[in-house]
Task: structure prediction
Amino acid sequence: PCFMVGYSHAKMLSEALRVPLVEVSPVRQEEDELLQGLEQGRLDLIFTMDHGLDNLKNVQYLKLDSVPYCMVVPPDHHLAARPAATLADFRRDTFIFSGSKGSPETRFLLDCCQKEDFQPNCKYVSDVRTKSLWIESGFGIALFNSENRACHSANARAIPLTDVPESNLVLAWKTNTTNPSVRLFTHITECCL
Result:
């Protein structure tokens, strides 16, 4: 049995590759691309944050972990030495987003900023690697979940945010899938939690 799995979190993918009797074909994509791939049937399973799943039909998901957020800043940022901060502390910074302007991750952060009574200056790049490069080069800052590699980069500083709610890392799949490997994989995953 084989299935296509999309992911944005390598830690969970490494666990998926250890499931016996199932061949996994991984593809790394931005969160909005993962949701589209699942909805359109190009992906059988996705590991992603739970933003945007409520907008999809016939999708079931399994919560794997709760993940806090960090603001990743260049090492010379004026707040880089802080042990923690609030989103409002960054109101004058340029926020860098990857993926589309309407992605669930972008909407989540913009909603959080609106609750703090500010509209951030936004720049958009095509992917997470470019986003990390822009941060390390001093072009702006970005929100990442604490599991992301960018939070552990020697060329940037991750500052935990005290006022941004945690998100859930989930495994999601279509409820009407005909691929038997999906049911096997989700069952094994659920038993291991």
Observations:
- The chain is about 25% helix and 30% strand.
- Residues 180-192 form the longest helix (13 residues).
- The mean pLDDT is 85.
